[in-house]
Amino acid sequence: MRDGNFTATAIIAPVVVSVIGLGIAGGFSWISDQFKEEKPPLYVSGSRSPRFAVSTKPGVQPSTSISSPAPVSPPPAHGIPSSSVTGRQADQSEAEAQGIQSLRNGYLCPWEAWVVNKPPSEFSNIPVLKDGNPDPEIINDDTAGDPTSTHLSIDIQPVDNRPLQVKELKIKILERKPAPTADEATLVGLQNGQCGGGPVELRAYADLDGGADFATVRFKGKEALPQELVGGRTLNIDLTVETRTCDCVWIPEIVWSKDGEVKTTEFRVNGKNFRTIASIGLERRAWQQDLNTLEWSETVFDESILD
Length: 307
Hints:
Blueprint: H1 2-26, H2 29-35, E1 42-48, E2 51-55, H3 76-79, H4 82-97, E3 107-116, E4 144-147, E5 149-158, E6 164-178, E7 186-191, E8 204-207, E9 214-219, E10 227-229, E11 235-242, E12 246-258, E13 261-266, E14 274-277, E15 284-289, E16 296-299
Parallel strand pairs: 4-14, 7-15, 8-11
Antiparallel strand pairs: 1-5, 2-3, 3-4, 3-7, 5-11, 6-9, 6-10, 6-12, 8-9, 12-13, 12-14, 15-16
């Protein structure tokens, strides 16, 4: 029995000595690392910002006319159609006569819109299911992309209280090909008749045109990067990425530094890359839903939602 105890001690003792030796050499940090849960130092979330058209009424009356291709020249007054501009100027004059210096933008009517890589002849029927959602057989990730521009809201937050500096925001272009022609694609819009809410402020923009692998992000106003996040502060970036010439797949890259290290984090919504397609010269097709009957009817595509 004594020999058995000796044998066990002889076997265990070198193992214990080895553990102690490694602990002294590494300060026992390697032991705690085995139980430490890996946690990213940066949390990035966000969503697509909705498209809005401005209306002076709570609902838009449907029209039976078909929209014609948009002109190449940009729409007047920051993307608001000329008829709306004229009406708003008249309203503004009347308001000023009564001593009111400014008016609200009116009602904002949300739209969904896509450039769909299908010719206009394939849109003789409304591309909507009975539940009001776009028909996935026609409008999906493979066939469609955002028209002209993509609007994002990105939230950046450190996971602890140590200072973290967001140094740069870049647009990495994963795929670039020429924009489709009017024979190959159609600009499709859906408006469900609900109008209200307030304006969305956009503070940053990037242009995908030019052929480079990265598009420069420029900030509007005085606030820009870099920004240091301390004491639980978070950062929100409202971003618009646009093109006039390409069918581009891209992702934002956030360059940040912490504890002396510079790293890059890619951002996607639901794990999907972003796709933006130029829409100049494409035939427009749009439908609007009646809130009372839930029926869809053809309407005029509102160009202001592309800004």
